[in-house]
Write a structure and sequence with these properties.
Strand order of the largest sheet: 2-1-3-4
Helix content: 40-55%
Strand content: 5-15%
Largest sheet: 4 strands, parallel
Number of strands: 8
Oligomer: single chain
Bound molecules: iron/sulfur cluster
Order of helices and strands: HHEHEHHEHEHHHEHHEHHHHEHEH
CATH topology of the largest domain: Rossmann fold
Number of domains: 3
CATH architecture of the largest domain: 3-Layer(aba) Sandwich
Length: 457
């Protein structure tokens, strides 16, 4: 066991002794994740040299590109292998039942790396973002740490970054990575949009998935190259995305009209296809097309939340506020530069601004106290109604407060929006007859489509 990893206190990066992790559990606070000496994530106490860094699939494509971004600064980053029955077996074995379903899946996938893949804990690092707020998500990095320590895997490093600072707390030299990582979020949201608006209509089954994977690889090739100036990387990224756009446009498709189903909900479960039992593919199989809320929405939301806290704390004129304001401007510029390439393709599929979603949800949820996905999903359902969607599904882990709250407000949301069908689908790894439920929902969406007042642009 290396002294650098074993002897540090629990410092919020998720690694420390078992004792320290136990102590830190109730007070996990935002702090820097640490990295290798050779990377911008330099730290004296955690060294990632020679370690494989694994990222959970949230979604697969987003993590694939984030891993590429991390490779650009010298880290050996990878996506966790696909989840399967063994994931649930291990996840179930090492959780108590009080944790939410996403934690069980992530835990199971991480444990597979050690117990099945045989990766040496001393050569393993796990990336597990965290968040402040009422949600159990904020406790999972500490819980994962404690479990690893209890099992004797103290040498595993857990990197934990937090939403409290807009996920910026990844080391003082990490500006380069933050910018590249943000671009990967935008790029994957674009690729996912292309995938979902093309796949239901493809003539040759499987072709869209292949083009999507090839697109990911083209973008990853650009973002994984080290020491590329931001301007040059942005140009290369636009060029790669233009090629991907052409590849999607070349896919033969059927000319047919399908009901458009908005997909909102808890961020992990809606983006991790194993967790939601491939709900989107099932909707496609039943004749629908999906519009999925991407990862970017969550990051814009954390930015908004940070501005709100600055206002509440009366720190609007501070160095931190200015820094956050500039970062947000840069993020907007980068997003705009990449999205411009797809203006024609995404006509009618424009993404909402987060303040717009918050406004939409305001009449249905308390202004303070209701936070996170419940607000975004409620606002998202209304936004999708205005875009002419034919129904909205909300993906929620079983017992997650987000789904419980949104399920309570959706009947009124639906009533006040032309009776558009909205339904929460719960997941806990023990699904009933999902195809039957999806089939019934699509029937409702088809009926609504024939009589709805708001048509698609
Ligand atoms: S949002 Fe829900 S499922 Fe996700 S971590 Fe929080 S409580 Fe659990």
């Amino acid at each position: 066991m290396s002294s650098t990893t074993r002897n540090q206190g629990a410092n919020g990066n998720g690694h420390g002794s078992s004792q320290a992790a136990h102590e830190a559990f109730p007070r996990l606070s935002p702090s820097a994740a640490r990295g290798a000496d050779s990377s911008p994530l330099v730290s004296a106490d955690v060294d990632l040299t020679g370690r494989e860094l694994y990222i959970p699939q949230m979604p697969y494509g987003g993590s694939f590109l984030l891993a590429a971004a991390l490779r650009s600064i010298g880290l050996d980053a990878k996506v966790t292998p696909d989840s399967d029955a063994r994931t649930l077996e291990l996840g179930g074995r090492y959780t108590s039942g009080d944790e939410c379903y996403p934690q069980k899946v992530v835990m199971g996938d991480f444990m597979k790396l050690i117990e099945d893949e045989g990766i040496d804990p001393g050569k393993l690092a796990l990336l597990l973002p965290t968040a402040n707020g009422p949600c159990r998500f904020g406790q999972y990095a500490a819980l994962q740490r404690r479990l690893m320590d209890d099992l004797g895997y103290e040498d595993v490093v857990i990197l934990s970054i937090t939403s409290a600072d807009g996920y910026a707390g990844i080391g003082e030299h990490a500006q380069e990575l933050i910018r590249t990582a943000w671009r990967t979020v935008v790029a994957n949201d674009i690729l996912m949009k292309l995938l979902l608006k093309t796949r239901p209509y493809e003539v040759n089954p499987g072709q869209t998935d292949e083009v999507y994977q090839k697109g990911l690889e083209q973008v990853a090739a650009v973002v994984s190259r080290p020491q590329v100036a931001h301007g040059k990387r942005l140009d290369e990224l636009k060029e790669a995305l233009r090629r991907v756009k052409d590849d999607f446009a070349a896919i033969p498709v059927r000319d047919e009209e399908r009901p458009l189903i908005g997909v909102v909900g808890e961020i992990f479960c809606r983006l991790n296809t194993f967790s939601n039992d491939e709900l989107i593919r099932r909707i496609e199989a039943e004749g629908g097309e999906c519009w999925l809320a991407g990862v970017g929405e969550w990051l814009w939301y954390t930015n908004e939340e940070r501005f709100r806290r600055f206002r509440e704390e009366k720190r609007r004129v501070s160095k931190e506020w200015l820094k956050h304001w500039i970062t947000t401007r840069v993020q907007h510029r980068d997003e705009h530069a990449l999205m411009t390439v797809f203006e024609d393709v995404f006509r009618g599929y424009e993404e909402p601004e987060v303040p717009e979603l918050l406004e939409y949800s305001r009449p249905y949820l308390p202004h303070s106290g209701a936070m996170g996905e419940m607000v975004l999903s409620t606002g998202g359902a209304i936004y999708l109604h205005h875009k002419g969607a034919d129904g909205v599904v909300d993906i929620s882990p079983f017992s997650c407060m987000n789904g419980i709250v949104t399920e309570a407000v959706y009947p009124r949301v639906s009533r006040e929006h032309d009776d558009m069908p909205i339904r929460v689908f719960y997941f806990d790894g023990t699904q009933g007859d999902l195809d039957r439920d999806v089939g019934i929902f699509l029937e409702l969406a088809q009926t609504y489509k024939r009589r709805k007042k708001v048509q698609r642009a």
